[in-house]
Give the backbone structure.
Amino acid sequence: MTFKDFFIEKGWAEALKNEFQKEYMKNLQIFLNEEIEKNITIYPPVQSIFNAFCQTPYDDVKVVIMGQDPYHGNGQAHGLSFSVPDGIIAPPSLKNIFKELMQDVQIKEPKTGNLISWTKQGVLLLNATLSVRESQPKSHYGKGWELFTDKVIEVLSAREDPIVFLLWGNSAREKVNNIFKNQKTKHLILQAAHPSFYSAANFFGCRHFSKTNEFLKKNGKKPVDWQIP
């Protein structure tokens, strides 16, 4: 497996073209191939690792929802932070996101945990780390993904168009805040606790979905329809 084997939307391919040539990405590719050769199950399936960069074109990004790393259970991860494929029961963190959505913007309770409809509206569902071992959260941390996704945030933050960054949990907050450290920014950065079972009490009431749409409308952008079809 080489990263050249993967399709990435042309805008992202251009924005990140130099990154794929760097030593850390070559080392990351070697690491992932070693995992595969050892018959270690990794999620998402390798063909979906860059799914976020296929579903949301670079030029369309207006919201970034930052996660930690992919779900590590069978069939759950498909390369979009917090999202699961159709037919997979929503994990606790996603159920809590839906609770906040229903309270904040009065959507109907979703029948699926597949958030792909958001990606089609310019919402980039990005994890800090793009792969993980089965049943071992954070097992692919420190292998190079963080440098790659730092670059993703860097190129987005340099854009003239204002973007909303939704940061849920310490990993997301630390990551993006380091990028914007000591900078005045035209972007909107919203922070809250992670929507997991352990910290959801401090996530509920953040109203990030309505605040996002208020900011988008203020800046002449179409608000996100958060209802899951």
